Structure formats: C-alpha cells, structure tokens
Amino acid sequence: MDSLSYEEKYPDAVMPTKCHLEKILKGQKALVTGGDSGIGKGVAAALGEAGADVVVNYHSGEDGAKEIVNKICNAGGNAYAHQADVSKEDEVLLMFQQMFHEFGTIDILINNAGHQKDAPFHEMTLEQWNTVLNVNLTGQFLCAREAVREFKRRGVVKDISCSAGKIICISSAHEVIPWAGHVNYAASKGGVMLMMKSIAQEVAPYRIRANSIAPGAIRTPINISAWKTPESYNELMKLVPYNRIGEVEDIGRAAVWLASDYADYINGISLFIDGGMTLYPGFSAGG
Ligand code: BGC
User: Fold this and answer.
1) How far is CA 272 from CA 58, 106, 253, 262, 281, in A?
2) 3 in a structural domain
3) Does any domain span residue 159?
4) HEC sequence for the chain
5) pLDDT for 160-182, tens place per residue?
6) Does a structural domain hold residue 6?
7) CA of 53: how far to CAs of 73, 98, 222, in Å?
8) Edge-to-edge strand order for the sheet containing 108-111?
9) Which pLDDT tens digit goes with each residue over 49-68?
10) Average pLDDT, stretch 221-228?
11) 102, 183, 207, 248: least CB-packed within 10 angstroms?
C-alpha cells in the first residue's frame, strides 16, 4: 500500500497541472509570512514564478524557507529568507526595515503565518488561546500596519502596478464555519475577516487593496490527520462537494491573480477556495 503514489492512492484527488503563470508580477516586491511550509510555501513559489521578488519569512522552519528561496533564485528570480515571530512588534519592524534595505519597498503582503492549537473548549488553556490569537490575528495586524505605512508613503508607481499596494490575508473557511474543538482558531479567522474588511474600507482611497483568501481543506502539514489515511480522506470528502482535497498550488495561483492588476477592482472580499466546503454540503440530500 505504501509503495503507491499519492495519485494512485487517491485517483480523484488530482489537481489540473496545465496552468501557466505569466510574469504578471514582474518588478513587484512581496513578503510572505510563514513562507516556509504549507500554503505560505506554495504562495511564495507562485509569486516567484510570476516574477515577484520574495521575502520568505519563517519562525522556526529555516530549511523550508531556504528551500523555497533556492527554488526561486535557481529559476532566475530574487528571494531571501528572514526569521521573525510575526506576533512580536520589534521583530516585525526589523523585518520590514530589512526588506526596505534589500528590496527598496513592498508591493504585496501575504499575511499567512498561522497556528492551530486545538483543544476541547473546557480544556483550552489561556496559553493556547493567546498563542493562536497572537500569531493569527495580532501578527496579521502588525504586518498589515507596516505595509500600509509604506504603501501610503510611496503611493502608486505606475510602471509597477496601478495600485499603491496589496494585502492578502490568508484566512480560512472557518472565518464563517464554526469549528468545535478549534474555538481559538475560528475566533482568530473571524477576526481576520473584519480586520481585513475594515482595513480595506479605510485605505481604499489611497488605492490600497486588502482582501482575504479563505482556504478550505488544503493538503498541508497543519491538517495531515484529515487526509493521511484513506479512511480520514473519505471522511473529509463528505465536507467537500468538489470531491478532491485542495493543493497549495490552488492557493498560489489565486494569490498571484488577486495580487495582480487583473484584480484591480477587487477590494475587501474573502475569496473562498474550498471546493464548496462553505456550501453546506450536509444539505445536498436533506433539509
Ligand atoms: C485548517 C485546516 C482544515 C481546513 C478545513 C483550515 O483553515 O487550518 O486544518 O482542514 O481549515 O476545515
């Protein structure tokens, strides 16, 4: 069984591969928080492929960050890794200063770094609550604030983009779907939704766009227990009408488009990329 490839094990779980990312982000400078693994890694790779220069932030996954930096640089792009805890204000300030020193400015912020610390609600510790809220929500606030300060200072540079800057918050289907056993996580993502929309409303007049991507079940280490065995995979598919798990490339491709001028009139939305997880699949045969 173990000798089978992922595609052989899950023949319906195949994502289309014929998809080309042009260099539509050429000349743009991007920062991806938590770019060393999972969705962040996929988005960093896609931005690099689309021609952006990329800062790959990581907290403890130095190897993953370096791997993606090498991938981008070997393909002729420009990238470097930066260690910082996004929940610490001084570390965030330093990361942006370093980026301005290396790349001159920022055009795209991918607010991705996130944690899950699951527990039944009555057993959830304050530490589990605080860690998740500090990284998932406060971390996104700190990074978005620094990005907006720079976007406002610099304004639109027409040859680069018709927008003064783009923020993409990586949220979750759980910004709207309640999630028992994950109260801290769902609360943080619900917070991200209204933080993003309020930022978007406030800074739109400066031609700054803020949006979220709200992924469903994407095949990453964070949710490995939900897809690693055929039994758990089949259980998961009961929640996904499209009947395949998402891949990080599904998110990467959408992030490139959302950050590009093709999406210039899109501001303050959550783009759900979830194979229909938010369509109340339980109602397909009931109600
Ligand atoms: C979580 C995953 C989960 C998915 C769908 C994501 O935000 O991080 O663990 O599989 O939502 O429930």
Assistant:
1) 25, 25, 13, 18, 15
2) no
3) yes
4) CCCCCHHHHCCCCCCCCCCCCCCCCCCCEEEECCCCCHHHHHHHHHHHHCCCEEEEEECCCHHHHHHHHHHHHHCCCCEEEEECCCCCHHHHHHHHHHHHHHHCCCCEEEECCCCCCCCCHHHCCHHHHHHHHHHHHHHHHHHHHHHHHHHHHHCCCCCCCCCCEEEEEECCHHHCCCCCCCHHHHHHHHHHHHHHHHHHHHHHHHCEEEEEEEECCECCHHHHHHCCCHHHHHHHHCCCCCCCCECHHHHHHHHHHHHCHHHCCCCCCEEEECCCHHHCHHHHHCC
5) 999 999 999 999 999 999 999 99
6) no
7) 9, 14, 27
8) 79-83, 53-58, 29-32, 108-111, 165-170, 208-215, 270-273
9) 999 999 999 999 999 999 99
10) 94
11) 102
Tokens encoding 20: 């080309």
Q: And the tokens for 111?
A: 């607010």
- 283 found inside a domain: no
**Tokens read off for 154:** 């610099």
Q: Which of 136, 184, 223, 242 to mutate to test the pocket of ligand 1 (most atoms within 8 A of CB)?
A: 223
**What are the structure tokens assigned to 22, written together?**
């042009």
Distance CA(286)–CA(110), nearest Å, equals 39
Residues 6+ positions from 141 with CB-CB distance below 8 Å: 195
Domain tally for the chain? 1
Best substitution site from 175, 220, 222, 272 to test ligand 1's pocket, by max atoms within 8 Å of Cβ? Answer: 222
Tell me what pLDDT residue 287 has.
87
- Name the residue range of residue 221's domain: 22-275
- Residue type at position 152: K
CA–centroid distance, 141 to ligand 1, in Å, is 21
Q: Extract the tokens encoding 287.
A: 């109600």
Residues 6+ apart with CB under 8 A from 281: 238, 239, 240, 241
Q: How far is the CA of 245 from the centre of ligand 1 (A)?
A: 11
